[in-house]
Each structure stands twice: as C-alpha cells, then as structure tokens.
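Re-running Folate-binding protein to confirm reproducibility after the cluster update. Everything else is unchanged from the original entry.
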Amino acid sequence: MTVHSYTLPDRAVLHLSGPDTLEFLRGLVTQSLTKLTDEQPVYSLLLTPQGKIISDFFIARKGDDLLLDCPASIADTLKKKLTLYKLRAKVEIEDVSELWTAVQMWGDENRLEKMIAEALAFLHVYRDPRLPALGVRVLGPTQAKPDLPGEVSRAEWDAHRTVLGVPEFDADFVSEQTFPMDVNMDRLNAIDYKKGCFVGQEVASRMKRKGEVRKRTLIVEAPAPLSVGSPVMAGESTLGEITSNADKQSLALIRLDRLDKAGDAGLTVDDQTVTLTRPPYLED
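Result of re-run:
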C-alpha cells in the first residue's frame, strides 16, 4: 500500500502570540485546549452567538504561540472576529499564510506512523484529529517543503474524504449558515461540551441536551456523478441536497425527520436511483 499526499492550496495560517494567547482562545473556541500538546494539534470551531459555524480550523502549538490552520476564504474574516473579541487581552494576531503549507497524507499506516515518529522539530506532523482514517496532516514552513511521496490530485483527496463522510468548508458548508451538528462536527472531534465557555455554547449545548439533531451530512451513492445542489428526493418529498461530490459518491445535507417519514420509498437524485448511508463514525 502506498502513501498518498495532497498539498492543500486553499489553506491559510494565523499566528497568535502574546502572554494571554492561550486563555484568550480558550474562552472562544469549541474544543478544549487542555487536549492541545506540542505533538498533537486539535480541531475546533468558532461559532456565532447563535451557534452557527463561522470557521473550522486546526490549532497547533509553536512554542508559546499558536497557529490556526484555517480555510483561506475565511481567514480575513476570522482574523477580524478574533480581533473584535480581543479587547484588552495581550494577544497579537498575524496572517502568516505565505510562510506555511498544509498537506494531507493517507495510505500505508506503517509509513505514516514512521513519518510522525521521525518528523523534524519545525514540522507539525500528526494524526488528523477529526478521524484517524483521514490519515496524517502536515503543517510546515513553505520554504522547507520536502518532496512528498505519491502526490495526488484534488479529485483523489475529495474521493478519500467523501467515502469517509467528512464534510469540508467551502464545499459542504459556508460561514454563518450551518449548525455544527448539520455537518457532523459533534462527531468529528470539533466540540467538547464539557470544556466550559465558548461563543455559541448556549445554543450548541441546548441542541445537544435536547437531542435536536434535525439534519446530518450523509453519504450518497449513485450509478453516475451527481450535480452539487441537486435535491435528494423520496417521491415528491425533498429530503435535502447534494453538497459535494467525488465520482459516484457524494455528500448531502439531509433532513432526518423527512428521511424517517420516507420509510422504504425509493430515493432519487438527478433521475438516478441512489442510496443514503450514515458515515460509520455516526454509528458509534
């Protein structure tokens, strides 16, 4: 089995420094920073006060500072939001995207484990905290980027995450429109409901407590590729829509109550008969 590598072109990096950095971020983001170590970054979210996702990101330590590996499309907005919350906290926030490159790697487990164990000190090489099957994520200085084994295309990366049922920002959801549970973030290690305060906690915790999971992102299988935005139908009832695709597998945001009501009714998208499956991590 080989190792596949995909250099992520649409990532940005924010550098947070200053004596109040850790405490400042601790009160804002959804994941507990007690899980953050030099060897293992964490995956987290910043929510609106109404509980919708502004951005997802990986948080890595760099000495006493922090690096936020986030979608490039939202980096400026994220920086402005964090600056707004900063008030008198002694924190500096800088966009250093040109200095850093993010890579996703998956495949041969033995080789991946060896890469983690032998990683150079200036590289962040770690198990993807969302889902182990996603593989290994690397964040390192752009000028020191090594030759990577098995470099693949965006289509192959999308196929890998789609078969695992992992939504991605800008593909399956955008800023300030989606609740974390809609895109399975509560099951992808983005939220720690026991951590204490974070922006949007009241709404997120109430949905968790009351079991108000109205939508989930599910895997769709079809005989041929589907169009993004196409409705998923059960007879005349619309269950949801395709959010991203990769060949014959797609992801779709689905209303669970409508899916339950559909029963054994045949499901279609773009006049094709399809099947819906829940990602295995939702079954745990």
